[in-house]
Amino acid sequence: MSLPDRRTFYNGKAVSGGPSGPTFQSIDPSTSKVVCTIYTSSESEVDQAIRSANLAFPSWASTPPVERSRILLKAASILRSRNDELAKIETIDTGKPFSETSTVDVITGADVLEYFAHLVASGGLNGESFHLRDSAWVYTSKEPLGTCAGIGAWNYPIQIALWKSAPCLAAGNTMVYKPSEVTPLHAQLLAEVYQEAGLPDGVFNVVYGDGSVGSLLTRHPGIAKVSFTGQVSTGRKVAGAAAGEMKYVTMELGGKSPVIVLPDVDLEQAVDGAMMANFFSTGQVCTNGTRVFVPEQLKAEFERLLLLKMQYVRAGDLLDANTNFGPLVSKAHYDKVVRYIKHGVEVDKARLLYGGLGQPDHLPQSLRTGYWVRPTVFTDCTDEMKIVKEEIFGPVMSILTYSSVDEAVRRANNTELGLAAGVFGRDIDLCHRVIKQLQAGITWVNTWGESPAEMAVGGWKQSGVGVENGRRGLEAWLRNKSTLVDMGGSVPTVFSKL
Hints:
By secondary structure, the protein is α/β, with parallel strands linked by helices. It contains 15 helices and 22 strands.
């Protein structure tokens, strides 16, 4: 499938064709074939996109919240009406099965857009007021920041674009959005959806390119805030550069999240949860629970049930409704994940329970040029192994055993990352006690991965700064103004006649 080329989009339209700067190609990961060409945004085009957003800001910020809400709700309706069309683009771009993109990616993004549209229309931007004393009172207001930069990740392209743009625009800001250069196809389509819904020109703009373009956004004096989703090492650089210019930041970074299986667990439920925490989206999820802690006495039965269920991980034609496992997103990422699997076998000496090097069984010949790996499970793992310590971002599960719950909690927390964590067990009081001790910003009990619009999410430690979604997610796109009104009739002063 070939698609139109992509160019910088600002002031309501894409820049016209003709000679331009460097280009890169969008690749279908399932076949490694070229889908279209992307034109890298020049420094001048980045400036123009930011200028367009800055010019649009005063009018959009002064638009009543209920009117902004109507536009965003119409955009959500358009997204839902075009769900399958957009989901197919996401499948081509990311390599995720259509069974996933059609039920998760676009839909959950539209959910967030609806949530923030309703929130600002129903008083979510209201401040507070209170009497300070009989002759004075204080009121606060929530004001938009200005033009904001959204820098997306490659694993959930349109969902992440909506997670950033929905609260940003609902709060009255404008945005310049840069998708990942690995999965850029959604960005102009989203801009066109917003435009069709009635969003004024310049309120949402798109630039394309790698980290150098992201750096232009991060350092630009016309940008008030940077919201970034990606790996920890890049996030540190982005946050440092933005904070050095006194910009607001939100960072949603990586994780090496633990799944703790408690001794009284429903073991089949725990296996289902561990599989969702490792193989959904081919393991390319920042919240993946790749360190699975299992009681020593349950290890054999856990592994037996897991092996029985691994047959239900089905690679194949991505548009087939039965396919639930796709390729990795790019050749570079494929090479990285393969190196980790090889290291787990040859250097860490973990026992390979399932999978390993090579492509999934029964893969059609037409797909064998794609970036496919086998879903892989290592067992008899230890905390010191590289595959246990480092974020692989692929379908690689590590099973570790423990002898006491306190030990499992201590080892689960022994990481510089703190994005997500979860527990599985029948004793709900014990589940809550364990969750309270886990050092992570997103936690689950007897489930894994759900992240509704109403739920604020964000990482601890090196896994991020700030939150997205929920009421607190809106606050991240606002600044506070406090006003004290004195009604006493005179100004208190120390400069008076003695």
